[in-house]
Amino acid sequence: MIVRERPGALRLMLAWKGSVVPHILPHIALAGLFAAAVTWVSRHHYLDGIVDYSLLPFTIMGIALSIFLSVRNTATYDRWWEARKHWGHMVYEIRSLARTGNIYLNTERQRALLIRCLAHTHLLRGQLRGEDVRHDLPEALPPALIDQALNAQNPAAFMLHQAGNVLTEARRAGELDSVATAAIDRHLHNLAGIQAASERIALTPLPFAYTLLAHRTAYVYCYLLPFGLVGVAGWFTPVFTAIVAYTFFGLDRLSEQLEFPFGRHTNDLPLDAICRIHEISVAEALGDPAPAPLQPVHYQLQ
Description:
The chain is mostly helical. It has one domain (about 20-285). About 75% of the residues lie in helices and about 0% in strands. Helix 3 (about 55-105) packs antiparallel against helix 8 and helix 8 (about 210-235) runs antiparallel to helix 9. The radius of gyration is 26 Å and the shape is elongated.
């Protein structure tokens, strides 16, 4: 995720980091070159009936395409924002679990519970991003437990189950009554809900027909537009075509990035930084040295 102060007008126009331009620049250039070719053909009076069109059809088509892209981008942003709310709520749950555990559990049980919940957040991040997070797991975890978790079909769910086993053992040892057990388990229950919501977002893309329709329509529009502009814009046709292509191709590309918010694109969620917040919360609750928060690197927070 891009984290930076809003630059001035000129720097904002020239900003490259976080922009979709690097991803769509070849498509913009190709549309501009095609518009230049259409303009050259028109100026040399070749195929005179083919490039002489009114702008009205393109205006109507552009309005329809803009509305469709707006609806699609709203849907993808909703997915991005929902994911951010769930991972923000996870911060609350980890901190509340640390406070509740401090009330009801002895030091050993509390440490075991919080370390397993911290490992759960890292394992969930690894599942969502398809990354190996073995070296990010807490060192206090037994190596055999780490191996078991990484070999499970759902490592994050396995580790959350191990956190529940800590409560089971405390309950059987007579250290917890039913009220205390329910109070702590409520936070584990909510962490499971956050995991399920994250998996739903990651594993359920928007219908492919939306992507196909937006992609095709944007390309058709941008490559037909020069035929309508050339009669009134002349040699400025490639410039106007490139601007329109930047808008439509950019919206299409941005919606693709927001559709899956858990990756490492510049506009994806900073899961590493959120997991570091969990590490700080757990360390401070246990009285251990807390690591420093992650900082953006070249304006990007992972």
